[in-house]
Amino acid sequence: MYYFSRAVNSVHSEDIKRLMRQSSGPDLISFAGGMPNNDLFPIQQIDEIYAGLTESVKKSCFQYGPTSGHPALLSSVRQRLLKKGLPDTGNRLLITTGSLQAISIITQEFINEGDVVLTENPCFVGALSVFETYGAEVHGIPIDENGIQIEKLERKIATLDKKPKFLYLTPNFHNPAGITYSLERRKKLLEYLDGKDIIVLEDDAYSDLYFNPEHESMVRPLKAYVGYDVDIIYTGSFSKILGPGFRLGFMYASPEISEKAETVKQALDACTSNFMQILASEFSNEHYLDPYLAYLRNEYRERKSMLQHALNKYMPETVQWTEPLGGFYFWLRFPKGFSSTELFERARVRGVVFVTGRTFDPHNERDNCLRLAFSNMPRKHIEPGIRILSEEIRDLL
Asked: How confident is the model over 76-91, as pLDDT tens digits?
């Protein structure tokens, strides 16, 4: 008999394992995988970069590196953050093994069992899994098309008997809801949090993937806003802009937070892969990254438009969604009482899968929504997949 810890009992961890099993298959039309399509990866450029490295640099690829990160990648990432308007002083950068590790590190740094974490509802399931694993008491705050609902956030905080350790947010091209916080909502949120001593954990994995140039100004990080007494930890990722297999992310936070975070990371894996950090830094420094991002934006914009067209063509009028301005996702909302879990079972029989709404609910309850990812979807499957889904939805409504 095994006496497992409570940490292995996360409901959302089970959801993630099920999601990974269901997100691909030779005979499936899968809207489940929130990942790039394999055909989009910059294979040729990476081959050229590695072939062009000196023998000494290649040897260092196989070696341990500093826990804080490979110096060249730290410099490259910092420059990109400064272009996004983030402050260049008073913060330190830490390279992590994917942005989910950054979220995990922050959780370990601040959370004791029973401590309160606030999130959006719906919320990125990977973050929910981390918070549950470390024993946090998670409270979800509803969002609308403009962002987290400030009044409901205020009411929730007023009812708690302990101060939240942090508030986890995804303001840009939200996973799963696809929304982007409006400028007004960003300012109101910062005004409300000003001086309240509640840390914000800002997850910004998608902001480089806006569909149109005019949307770039809308994705300014919360951490780039000055004049507010709000401590913001900013995290980002290479998974969506280079490849998930690189397992590269980062966090940008105050020196005190970063120092403790580096201690936690040292105990986790000593350092992130030097091999991948060197390739990523060279990819950026050799000026491959910006043209590659332009290519990805075009690819994802076209896939988004195809999915939007199919939804407009086939979905019943009672189904609602917000058209995303970037990122990977559509979030479909159904009338109260609709079960996306029941829809999933019916659609799977016909070879179509997606992610149910309950998966992204911090309380694992609300199920009248679902997430459709178009990033990994072959174009030829988009319309047939939506047509099948719509037929099953009409039958259930």
From this structure: 999 999 999 999 999 9
CA distance 49 to 299: 24
Quote the Cα angle for 129-324-183, to 5°. Answer: 90
Query: Peptide bond preceding 122: is omega within 30 degrees of 0, i.e. cis?
Result: yes
For the chain, list the domains and their CATH numbers. 6-42+291-396 (3.90.1150.10), 64-285 (3.40.640.10)
Question: Distance of alpha carbon 384 from its chain centroid, rounded?
Answer: 27
Q: For 342-375, what is each residue's pLDDT tens digit?
A: 999 999 999 999 999 999 999 999 999 999 999 9
- Mean pLDDT of the chain, nearest integer: 95
Specify whether the CB–CB gap between 176 and 216 falls below 8 A. Answer: no
pLDDT tens by residue, 125-165: 999 999 999 999 999 999 999 999 999 999 999 999 999 99
Each residue's pLDDT tens digit, 298-309: 999 999 999 999
**211 contacts 300 by C-beta, under 8 angstroms:** yes
Measured between alpha carbons, how far is 117 from 134 in angstroms, rounded to an integer?
A: 11
Please report how the helices 379-396 and 289-314 are oriented relative to each other, as an axis angle in degrees rounded to 10: 40
Question: Coil, helix or strand for 53?
Answer: coil
User: What is the rounded average pLDDT of the residues 256-267?
Assistant: 98
Helix, strand, or coil (residue 121) = strand
Q: Please give the sequence-ordered ranges of beta strands (E in DSSP) within the chain, or none if there are none.
A: 29-30, 92-96, 116-121, 137-144, 147-148, 166-169, 199-203, 232-237, 249-253, 329-333, 352-353, 355-356, 369-373
Q: H or E element: which one contains 43?
A: helix 43-52
